[in-house]
Task: inverse folding
């Protein structure tokens, strides 16, 4: 029945695109090959397709269809090569896996605040339990997405203590009733009035509910994250390693690295930690930085001028 549904969708898309409600672009990266796909949902056929944007060919296998929860949206899980994707009307969620029938993670990127710091929602599709990472602003946007995605927030995790990554923290904590976790060396930045003034933020005293250390494993299910202590941008910087993904905060960006001219910064330390903690990950590991677009470890190894 899924094959018939897909054929019906392909036939309709070849002649009419008026029913399309969601279009998203996503990159699938394998060693030495970059696949660019356009993911499309068609509500009339209740299926989606992936069209290669360079060759216009279709490369997809429908794996499963997940009904919407409450007033949320329909999810459709796809398998492209060795990657699984779950798409919905408002989001693209993905997991790199060798088993297409393992449910993908919910992973949303929300660039927020004056500095457009990336806030991430990372959660299991099975339990809807997960984390908010770096709530840098616009608390109402974060809390609305948590509600729309029917998420239960285990904790709010801070990659470091700069206020452009924490400005919405107190409101999100109150709205989600979730504890705050940060590295033990980030506490001084979280309560540094001069640093807040330097970056143009109003001071808010922040005291984490749990102090993290290198090697800590956070979460009990699919949403598990391992703490990698990567000082250099600040003393309390951490990266968070999950299944095929790493949240790098302001340590590693797409084509760049974090600045080291602020309190606790050290150019030698940040390079040492990038090489010892991040460049040892597989090329396929997707990098989700504190600002800007995502990348992969393999891409950074090839194109990042600071790593050559």
Result:
């Amino acid at each position: 029945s899924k094959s018939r549904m897909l054929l019906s969708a392909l036939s309709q898309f070849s002649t009419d695109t008026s029913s399309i409600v969601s279009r998203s672009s996503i990159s699938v990266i394998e060693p030495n090959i970059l696949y660019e796909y356009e993911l499309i949902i068609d509500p009339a056929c209740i299926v989606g397709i992936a069209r290669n944007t360079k060759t216009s060919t279709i490369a997809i296998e429908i794996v499963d269809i997940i009904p919407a929860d409450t007033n949320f949206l329909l999810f459709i899980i796809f398998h492209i090569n060795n990657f699984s994707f779950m798409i919905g009307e408002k989001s693209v969620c993905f997991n790199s896996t060798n088993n297409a029938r393992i449910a993908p993670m919910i992973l949303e990127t929300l660039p927020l605040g004056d500095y457009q710091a990336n806030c991430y929602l990372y959660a299991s599709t099975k339990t809807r339990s997960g984390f908010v990472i770096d709530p840098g602003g616009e608390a109402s946007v974060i809390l609305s997405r948590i509600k729309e995605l029917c998420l239960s927030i285990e904790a709010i995790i801070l990659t470091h203590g700069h206020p452009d990554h924490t400005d919405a923290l107190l409101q999100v904590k109150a709205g989600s009733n979730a504890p705050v976790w940060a590295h033990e060396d980030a506490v001084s930045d979280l309560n540094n009035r001069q640093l807040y003034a330097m970056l143009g933020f109003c001071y808010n005293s922040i005291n984490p509910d749990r102090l993290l250390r290198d090697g800590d494993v956070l979460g009990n299910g699919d949403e598990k994250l391992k703490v990698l202590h990567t000082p250099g941008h600040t003393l309390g910087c951490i990266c968070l390693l999950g299944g095929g993904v790493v949240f790098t905060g302001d340590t590693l960006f797409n084509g760049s690295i974090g600045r080291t001219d602020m309190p606790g910064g050290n150019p030698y330390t940040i390079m040492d930690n990038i090489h010892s903690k991040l460049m040892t990950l597989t090329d396929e590991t997707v990098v989700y930085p504190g600002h800007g677009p995502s990348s992969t470890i393999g891409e950074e190894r090839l194109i990042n001028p600071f790593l050559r």
